[in-house]
Amino acid sequence: MLVHRDFGSGYAARIIITKDNMQFCNPNRPKKYGEVNLKTYLPDSKNPHIASVFKEMGLVDELGSGFRKLAKYTKEYSQVEPIITESEIFSVSIPLLDLDKIKGEKKEKIIIDVTNNVTDNVTDKGNKNNIIDLIKTNPKISQQKIGDILGLNKRTITRHMNQLQQDKTICREGTAKKGRWIIL
After folding, report:
1. Where are the domains of the chain?
2. Which fold has domain 100-183?
């Protein structure tokens, strides 16, 4: 909300959560008015300086990635796309599943699947970004030290680092004890 906010407006950003909907409202300087089509929307940076700080901290990705994630995770969670409206108030409305209408094992499976899916995607990417940042700071850092800093066990760090190596994001040069990590 900080990255997309129009700081010239005194309107307070809001998050409204009801039983069947979550809505995020932010003051905005609109390019267009009306409902946003996620397939044709061209993002533009409203606060490029704030966005670059958040990007350096690993809290945001490239321009427009938030819309893609929003569409993906909303569809995974509630089986529909979010409703995004642009005017002086930028509004994102996310329909929520009515779990009261779903019974028994199906309800439990939906809750477990959605929670695991969203949590894995969000936290894994954040952890990998944090690992890369630590390697940039100290290429000789050990997996144990990375785990200690991030509060993750060595097995989780090993899994993330193996994935980063398979994705050709990092590689190891030298021995396990005296080598160093290289960001590709």
Report:
1. 14-96, 100-183
2. Arc Repressor Mutant, subunit A (1.10.10)
168 vs 57, 71, 162, 182, CA distance in Å? 22, 27, 10, 10
Largest Cα span, the chain: 58
Residue from 24, 28, 21 nearest 44 by CA:
28
Residues 128-161 have pLDDT tens digits of 888 888 899 899 999 888 888 877 788 888 888 8
- pLDDT at position 109 is 63
DSSP β-bridge partners for residue 182:
171
Helix axis angle, 104-137 to 154-166, nearest 10°: 80
What is the percentage of the chain residues whose pLDDT exceeds 70?
Answer: 82
CA atoms within 13 A on the CB side of 132: 18
Distances (CA, A) of 28 to 8, 17, 44, 62, 81: 9, 21, 12, 20, 22
Cβ density class 163-182: b for 16+ within 10 Å, e for less: ebeeeeebeeeeeeeeeebe
